[in-house]
Design brief:
The radius of gyration is 15 Å and the shape is globular. The strands form three sheets. It has a two-stranded antiparallel ribbon. Strands 3-4 form a two-stranded antiparallel ribbon. A two-stranded antiparallel ribbon has the order 5-6. It has three helices and six strands, in the order E-E-E-E-H-E-E-H-H. Helix 2 (74-80) crosses helix 3. The protein has helices at 50-55, 74-80, 82-89, and strands spanning 21-22, 28-29, 37-39, 47-49, 59-62, 65-68. By secondary structure, the protein is of the alpha+beta class. It has one domain. InterPro entries: Ferritin-like_SF, RNR-like, YHS_dom. This is YHS domain-containing protein. Pfam families: YHS. Residues 61-87 form the YHS domain.
Length: 90
Amino acid sequence: MSNESLAPASCCSTTNAEGPVVSADGRENLLGGDDDMTTCPVMVGSPVSKSAAEAAGLFRDHEGQRYYFCCAGCGPTFDSAPAKYAANAA
């Protein structure tokens, strides 16, 4: 038996197309840069890297606007009521 604790898997552990983003102090920023960030319209308040979400196919276009999701479960939820979830992003 091991004393190591296992961290739960996260849907937000991503890197951008160039690889992991690293801050000046050497820590890896798994969420991307500030200009690349948005929030998920389904899980309001959940940060999303636009480039990572796009690379993973975690986005939908609705009425000329692109919406990015924090995990694979949010796309189908958004599809069920896009106007409702689009309003969350406004």
